[in-house]
Each structure stands twice: as structure tokens, then as C-alpha cells.
Amino acid sequence: MKNAPFNRTEVLQDRQGLKLASYLSLGTAELPHDISERLRVARAQALSQRKVTPLGSARSVVANGASAALTWGHEEGLGLWGRIGVIMPLIALVAGLLLINTLQDDNRARELAEVDVSLLTDVLPPEAFADPGFVQYLKAEL
Is residue 42 part of a domain? Predict the structure, then answer.
């Protein structure tokens, strides 16, 4: 899986931040207690005032290449025409499957009717009806 360019820059920034934090942590062990306490309080204040980045909305998720199915029930997501566009292929698939089933049933009924017509119109000896290969013979003749 390839990383997007913005993901790589975020990873590099995180690595740089971890390196910087480790260098700063190494130096705090040698500081006096009062300075380390002031640094701890300043760190707590900085963390409390930091900006929390909001999670991406559904539109931003879709814009970044995620699935459009994530927005199905969300008010920012697909409109009426978008939902119709999603449902129409499913409806076409079901209609096609029903049409294929109907055509196969009709073809099978037509084949059986041809066999029945052949049996009823031909003058055959009674022994022919008892023959197991008789249906294959009729199919080969038709």
C-alpha cells in the first residue's frame, strides 16, 4: 500500500518530534528540582491550550479516497440523485436475473412441448416408449 504524500510528511514530523523530545528529556535529569517543576507546569499549560484537530467530515473522507458508502446515512453525503445512482445498478441486476430465469423456464417448457408433440403425432410401436434412450433419440431427431 502506497502512502499518500501528506501521510509521509506527518510521519516525518512525528519522528522529528520524538527525537526532539528525547533530547530534551535527556537534559532534564541534570536540572535542579525547582526548574524541572516549572518546566512540568509549563508543559501542562501548553498541553491544555493546544488546538485539538477535529476529525474529518464525511466529505473530507470521501475526497481523500475513501468509500462513498461511508456517507450513506449522513446529511453531508449523497443527495437524492446520488442515492438513485447507487440503487439503479442493483435494480438492473435483479431485473436481469429475473429475465434470465424466465427465459430459461420458457425454453425448457418449449423443449418438453416439442418432445410431447413428437410422441403424440408419430406412429410408434409400444416398445419404443419403454426404451430408456428414446428421449435422446427424439432430441436428436428434432
Answer: no
